[in-house]
Amino acid sequence: MRRHTIAATLSLALVATIAGPAIAAPADAATPAGTVAAGTTAPTVTHLFPTMSDGVKIDAYVVSPSGPGPHPVLIAPASWLLDGREYLGAARGLARDGGYLVISYAARGFAESGGKIGVADRRDVADARELIDWAVADLHGDPKRVGMFGISYGAGISLLTAAADPRVGAVVAMSGWTDLARALVPNDTPNRLAIAGLLGSGAATTRLGLEPLAAGAQWFLGGKTTGVRTLAASRSPIGVIDGINRRKVPVLLANEWQDVAFVPSDLVDYFNRLTGPKRLQFVPGLHATAEMPGALSGLPDPTWRSAGRWLDRYVRGVANGIDREPGVQLVDVSRPALVGSPPATAYRGFSSWAGVTRSTQRRYLAASGSATSKSRTATLGTKASTGWSWTVTGAVATPADAHRPAALSSVQRSAGLVAQTAPFPAGITLGGRPRLHLTMASTGKAATAFATLYEVPVVGPGKPISFQPITITAPAGRATTFDLTLQPLYTRLAPGSRLALVVDTADAAYAGASKKGDKVTFSSKAGSPAYLDVPVSN
Is the N or C terminus of the chain more exposed, i.e. has fewer CB atoms within 10 Å? Predict the structure, then answer.
């Protein structure tokens, strides 16, 4: 009962973060762009309804700079459930200080836009392209200076459009997805929180298109993900990245470490495959919490300042130096996650994602003691250990998950494997992607393992710093050895802190395959010892 209550609460929280706070027209505020001023006259905001080629009208707010034009153009699709007022604070600053013509709009099916919700389908991409046409033909936009930006749903549409339209010269994608299939069903484990936040809330509007409606019904009524995977695969920017790379479109990706909807790993993989100018930023927080305040208010913060500088450099051609800065900018995952961006001084720059990891420490899991002991704790040491096993009862929730601190003593050893290192006397800086090598068997036909990595301070509960699920289907009793790459991280452990690993079989945000009554055994096989590869940074 408790687990279902938590899942329901998290689902509502995700919908709230995807939708953002209730929107009122923001007051004029300082610009986030931080660029060369185009003029001091306040931009004008007009609420218009351009008609698309299929007759559907789009609910758009046009923010126009002073002067006759032609103006550099920014197309900004709003987040899921929202309308174009979402970006008015940021758009006013961009128009005033950068001279941009900004079209901030609700994607079809949302707010006062007509049509059905396609979940970033071809028609959504066509709408963005036709809005560029409209900006050039009717609003004095410059077809040679076009960029896109967006948060969440708007980020995905921006990346998909840039891959399809040669006029898009730069993209800023914040809290967006790059591989929607992997975001919704990572390692064969349905992210029911993300699926509910996307397809569940979409269905609640009664305007969801037939394909996503069918995919959602298949999941909610039958627990099958075939339709969700098919839908997601055709709407993933990673699948059309060649369109970005052919033109070397400059792309800035900004996201939160603790985003439960669109996790950091997918952005890292996309970033690594980009061949043009690129920048990757991670800060603590949940979905869109770093970007939404600046979007609404226009108040300056590091995320929006980077966005403005990126667009100025690659849309307007301003030599502002952002292209000479390190392309990876990270804030410690353990820093308190506040609404809004951390201060600029909190960021650490790296030339590439590969450069985040200086070396790797392999820590072997070794378990001893009674299997029924309530305090049994495995070690993460430097010597390989095989022949041990740890059996838990499947589908039993523990206090361990990716989104809240937990005291290791509170994790039931009958429901989860717990391992920890010795204290790091001088502390240690970690950066990169941890990797777990472990063997698992179940009395059921399938089992899910949820691995959560914690920073454990000298005093206080452990803080989650990385996480990943994996589901394995195998005949009952058959042991399967897996390699699980956890979510990216960057953090500094204080002197005396430890690393701890919890592996259990239930998490409120996911639909695991382990069943009540199943016995799931984790072990370390001869010739294939269990270990955790820990990425060490400078």
Answer: N
| DSSP at 166 | T
User: What secondary structure letter does DSSP report for 119?
Assistant: S
User: Tokens 């969440």 — which residue?
Assistant: 152
CA–CA–CA angle 504, 506, 509 (5° rounding): 130
Write the CA distances from 82 to 13, 371, 413, 447, integer angstroms.
16, 52, 44, 38
pLDDT tens digits for range 140-164: 999 999 999 999 999 999 999 999 9
Calculate the average pLDDT of the chain: 92
Query: Which run of H or E residues covers position 46?
Result: strand 44-48
The Cβ of residue 378 has, within 10 Å, a number of other Cβ atoms equal to 25
* Alpha-helical runs (H) found in 167-263: 180-184, 192-195, 201-204, 210-222, 226-233, 241-247
447-456 pLDDT tens trace: 999 999 999 9
Mean pLDDT calculated for residue range 32-50? 69
For the chain, percent helix, then strand, then coil, each to nearest 5? 30, 30, 40
Return d(Cα 379, Cα 422) in angstroms, integer. Answer: 8
Residue reference for tokens 């068997």 = 441
Q: How far apart are CA 156 and CA 168, in angstroms?
A: 14
| 306: its two tokens | 């980077």
- Give CA angle at 394 (388, 396), nearest 5°: 115
Instruction: Tell me if residue 61 falls in helix, strand or coil.
Output: strand
Q: Which helix (H) or strand (E) holds 264?
A: helix 264-273
Q: Which of 54, 49, 198 is nearest to 115 (CA)?
A: 54
Maximum alpha-carbon separation in the chain: 79
